[in-house]
Design goal:
Elements (H helix, E strand, L loop, with lengths): L18 E4 L4 H27 L13 H4 L12 E5 L5 H8 L3 E6 L2 H10 L5 E3 L12 E7 L9 H11 E12 L27 E4 L5 E5 L4 H10 L2 E7 L16 H4 L5 E8 L1
Parallel strand pairs: 2-3, 2-5, 3-4, 5-6
Antiparallel strand pairs: 1-7, 6-10, 7-8, 9-10
Helix pairs in contact: 1-4
Length: 278
């Protein structure tokens, strides 16, 4: 079931391009802005990246690391019968793959429009439109949780999300999530040679914000260092069991925003954290 949230759609003059800046953005502003951005841009995103993601593949990031190869949620044969929550599911490609392995997935996303794409593709599993910081599930509802570039890069308080995920996991449950590798924040977000020179402090945690002409955020992304991510995980009651930095494979010749073969062969672009609840 998809429940459509209250829309946030400020009027924009024709041809208006948001202003990119670095400034503070709290939990409320970040959530509102990112729901708005993903609802407006879901169609373009699925058109541009849908072929790479597939309808029923589990891809951890632009490098193309596949869960079939990585096994970060555990052995393939052990997924059958597991209750799995996908957070920031988009069109639910990962949940669809999990269902094909015999798991019982639930696909959750903040964006109503993204989940409409999940409906378009199809799949016999629940779709839930909700905030990852306030999961609408009872304690101990899931065996596993996963998030491939979903929610965590866009929230002002990652510990709020992590604690919610821990709450809905059963003891021994595993949560694996991928985000932009923190080192990328020190470099321009460009796929070519200009993206190989440090242009900012890695330690500057000021969020990246795109805002309208009234100064209202329409897109927000938050930076955490590797150390921050580890501390967030531990403080939220998880045990970090693996940190994966996928190398760029020879077969992948595509570009995805600032991700490219040129940069991927030199600096990491994705970090995947694998955590367990004791």
């Amino acid at each position: 079931m998809i429940q459509e949230p209250e829309a946030y759609d400020p009027e924009r003059p024709e041809g208006f391009e948001p202003e990119a800046t670095r400034r503070d953005a709290d939990v409320t502003e970040s959530t509102r802005a990112n729901r708005y951005w993903w609802d407006r841009n879901a169609d373009e995103y699925q058109t541009e990246h849908g072929t790479f993601l597939g309808d029923d593949r589990f891809v951890w990031g632009p490098e193309g690391l596949d869960e079939v190869e990585a096994g970060l949620l555990g052995p393939l044969e052990e997924l059958k019968g597991k209750d799995v929550l996908e957070i920031g599911a988009g069109a639910a490609q990962c949940a669809r793959w999990l269902a094909a392995q015999g798991a019982r997935p639930v696909a959750l996303d903040l964006s109503h429009r993204q989940l409409q794409h999940a409906l378009r593709i199809g799949g016999a599993f629940p779709l839930v439109c909700a905030d990852a910081g306030a999961l609408p599930f009872a304690d101990g509802s899931f065996d596993l949780a996963c998030s491939a570039y979903g929610a965590l890069p866009f929230v002002a308080d990652p510990r709020l999300v992590l604690r919610e995920v821990r709450r809905v996991l059963r003891p021994g449950g595993r949560f694996a999530f991928s985000v932009t590798h923190p080192i990328r924040w020190a470099f321009p977000d460009e796929p070519g040679p200009e993206g190989l020179s440090v242009s900012a402090s890695y330690f500057d945690r000021t969020p990246y914000v795109e805002q309208d002409e009234q100064g209202r955020a329409v897109y927000v992304e938050h930076h955490r260092t590797l150390g921050d991510r580890v501390r967030d995980i531990v403080a939220s009651g998880f045990r970090l069991v693996d940190l994966v930095e996928p190398e760029w494979p020879v077969w992948n010749t595509s570009e995805w925003g600032g991700w490219s073969p040129l940069r991927g062969h030199l600096i990491p672009g994705t970090a995947i954290f694998v955590c367990e609840r004791d």
